[in-house]
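in:
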């Protein structure tokens, strides 16, 4: 006997439910490198003819050619700032590549000499800013060159964002060969700000402030030569595009200029000294509220690629910048597991900025097993106790510096009216969001939430509802001008045609806004950490 047909109203309801289910956007499952490469290749293949139609892609060259060739004084120069790992590093004494080329000639973190090149110096009682070496930045990492079984491989890194914006002299050739955007014979002023991403973000923010002051004079002189008058006649302002950690040092520079962190115990005073010569800022995938992955790498080390040597926890632990990527305690992203043994209730936040926490759990530089790495990093010290004392001192300095850096960034401060601050963030890929720590310190479980695979949506926005009380409208200490959410991964954000189209419009064609005085000072939020 055939089944009884549903009434028309029920059939329509079931059809609507099925349509909603089939049309829902589901995040892709992560199945490893090979599966990801396969998906990437499939994404480049046009959709087959039939019921599904391919989404048209914008012809950015046709759209922006004329605007890109206009070089009048009204147009702002652009500064591109990469994130952590995004600048090449080189040994200035020997010319050896420390980061940015991975072959037999590059520094190997698995050797004593390579570990000392990659890690920063440590010395007990010496401030972090005085712990310098001869390694320095050598340009933005437009591509990564690898060697696998003797065969050279090149992987695009920042080529997309550099290509989109026409940064530096070499990018013009790439765009011309691709037939994308014709910048004409007189390429307009664009700059890369490369930096030693191992070091304290405040140091690099101070360098960025000096870089803007220096390049502003250069641009003013060029404008006076091209258009007449005196250099001082031109009120040059810069636009900034900053990726990942580059957005953190940019935000600090905007708020405090070249000032150091406020002394311990003092509330930071936002002056917006760095915003005077900046017009528009575009942050891309910036972890404003940190990432649990930073903790995992500081505790366990990491392998950036399967074919490379591991970067041990102690080597990474020499770098102050990674501690400045840790999540905030108030957001409860790293919490204790419920335990009768410890007497702690589940969900209690772990105090990541207390060195005693790292001592108790034997994390990172406080892990006795890392003495094998410390022997490479500190060859002048004979005993494990001596090496441990230096490492523990370095750990405490990095944690204290990170806590004060976060306090400086987290002060709610009204954005100056003359400053435009936009965010592009991922919102579809499951991303590590919360770590559960067992009583003895093992990171037992990780939860995931939407993001770009590296930075969560909430961290990029600095959503203060995380770990606290929910409200329908997002509270944030960052006063955003605009937020844009894309369904791509951390580096793929810059390759998205949606990103490229919107950024090119903003930089090349969006109407100029009237400038107004910067806001001078604001009080910190209660409970800011």
């Amino acid at each position: 006997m055939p089944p009884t047909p549903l009434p028309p109203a029920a059939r329509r309801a079931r059809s609507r439910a099925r349509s909603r289910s089939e049309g829902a956007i589901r995040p892709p499952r992560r199945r490893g490198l090979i599966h990801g490469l396969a998906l990437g290749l499939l994404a480049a293949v046009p959709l087959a003819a039939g019921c599904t139609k391919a989404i048209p892609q914008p012809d950015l060259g046709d759209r922006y050619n004329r605007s890109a060739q206009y070089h009048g004084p009204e147009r702002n120069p652009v500064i591109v700032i990469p994130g952590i790992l995004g600048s090449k590093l080189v040994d200035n004494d020997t010319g050896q590549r420390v980061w940015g080329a991975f072959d037999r000639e590059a520094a190997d973190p698995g050797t004593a000499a390579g570990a000392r090149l990659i890690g920063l110096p440590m010395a007990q009682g010496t401030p972090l800013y005085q712990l310098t070496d001869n390694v320095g930045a050598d340009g933005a990492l437009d591509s990564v060159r690898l060697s696998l079984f003797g065969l050279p491989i090149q992987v695009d890194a920042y080529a997309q964002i550099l290509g989109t914006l026409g940064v530096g002299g070499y990018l013009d050739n790439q765009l011309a060969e691709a037939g994308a955007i014709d910048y004409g014979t007189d390429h307009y002023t664009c700059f890369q700000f490369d930096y030693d991403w191992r070091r304290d973000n405040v140091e690099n923010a101070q360098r960025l402030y000096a870089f803007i002051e220096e390049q502003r004079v250069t641009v003013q002189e060029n404008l006076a030569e091209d258009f007449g008058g005196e250099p001082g006649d031109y009120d040059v302002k810069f636009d900034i595009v900053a990726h990942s950690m580059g957005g953190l040092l940019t935000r600090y520079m905007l708020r405090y200029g070249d000032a150091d962190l406020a002394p311990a115990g003092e509330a930071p005073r936002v002056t917006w000294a760095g915003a005077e010569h900046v017009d528009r800022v575009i942050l891309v995938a910036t972890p404003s509220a940190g990432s649990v992955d930073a903790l995992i790498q500081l505790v366990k080390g990491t392998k950036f690629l399967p074919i490379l040597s591991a970067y041990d926890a102690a080597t990474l632990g020499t770098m102050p910048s990674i501690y400045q990527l840790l999540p905030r305690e108030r957001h409860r992203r790293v919490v204790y597991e419920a335990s009768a043994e410890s007497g702690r209730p589940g969900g209690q936040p772990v105090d990541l900025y207390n060195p005693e926490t790292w001592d108790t759990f034997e994390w990172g530089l406080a892990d006795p097993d890392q003495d094998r790495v410390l022997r490479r990093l500190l060859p002048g010290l004979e005993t494990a106790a001596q090496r441990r004392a230096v490492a523990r001192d370095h750990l405490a300095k990095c944690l204290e510096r990170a806590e004060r850096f976060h306090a400086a960034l987290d002060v709610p401060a009204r954005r100056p009216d003359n400053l435009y601050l936009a965010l592009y963030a991922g919102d579809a890929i499951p991303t590590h969001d919360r770590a559960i720590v067992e009583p003895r310190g093992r990171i037992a479980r990780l939860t995931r939430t939407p993001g770009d695979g590296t930075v969560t949506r909430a961290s990029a926005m600095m959503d203060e509802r995380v770990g606290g009380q929910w409200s329908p409208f997002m509270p944030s200490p960052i006063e955003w001008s605009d937020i844009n959410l894309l369904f791509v991964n951390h580096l793929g954000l810059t390759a998205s045609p949606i990103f490229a189209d919107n950024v090119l419009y903003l930089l090349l064609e969006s109407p100029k806004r009237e400038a107004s005085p910067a806001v001078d000072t604001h009080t910190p939020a209660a409970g800011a950490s």
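note: Residues 1-52, 145-155, 166-181, 515-529 have pLDDT under 50 and may be disordered.
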